[in-house]
Amino acid sequence: MWSLRRNFEATAARSYVVRMVRRQFPTLDSQTIAYRLAYGSFVSLRHKILYVETPKVACTTIKEYLRDLCDAPPLTFSIGHHRESRRDMFVHARSNVPLPSLFDLDEETQRHVLTSPEFLRFGIVRNPYSRLLSAWRNKILLCEPGYEYVYRKMTGIEPSLREKETLTFEQFLKFVEGEDVGTCNPHWRRQIDLLLYPAIPYTHLGKIERLRDTFELIEKHAEPGRSVPLGNSNSTRVGHAKLTDAIAGRIHKLYAADFEAFGYNRNSWLALNESEHGNRTIPETRFVDEVIERNLVISHLYEQYAQLQSRYRNSYRFSLARIQDTVAALWEAGRHRSKADR
Questions:
Q1: The pTM is what?
Q2: Which domain holds residue 336?
Q3: Which one, of 121, 155, 126, 122, lies nearest residue 138 by Cα?
């Protein structure tokens, strides 16, 4: 394991794209940049596409489209780094989008991808106000797997067994204010840091507010006739959060670089407040779908746990640990007999 880590560190330090990014992001070390690119970038040499994801900005839809482009096999669901509550969200396991990352490519190919006028190099951004609201609704409000630590940190306890008190958006904002938004969880990390912008020479930076324009561009470039599905797979409209000028000011302070880089107005929160008054009732079909998905994922995890237990028991029978336990038990028994004989 140590050898693999050292090899990764050495490869990261030599990588052309990592060195290129570091020139504009000198505070980021080579490993951080390499890990970001290894997970968050996707290259189709056949279709001449480079995509760098931004969580909470249509990345589920784009990854599903990339899977379709490369004729990927069915999604695999496994216990690991990604903790999901829906089967379709396992699209975010990197192995489920079988395209190389920019970091995986050799230096010559990296240069070609980053400079060729034939390549579409794109990412998608979002109003920082609505993106942070979306992160709160989708990850924090209902304690998505892997995010319960935020609740514990802000309240000191876990949600009760009966009546639940959820974290308000302002509580979540206070949590984020204690984070380094340049390196924190990708769902509320600054978008310039996720996209490594402007170090990566994008030919197109779309906006989620005009998503159809970006989709049409991708379709035309990659494979005319194969459309990007306009999905809404992980949107959540539960929870109410009304922004005020003071709260908006705190968000703007955190994400000032995103507002400036991508042209979002400081007062755009006012329009978001108007949309907050819309219907927040969840249709019964959506409710049933969410519950079934969660139940299936829970069942799958139990099955994997049972398989791991079985494998452990089988391997333990003939393992060194069992021999050591047996010897220790015999020694302990002999020690007690010796005391009794005295």
A1: 0.86
A2: 283-342
A3: 126
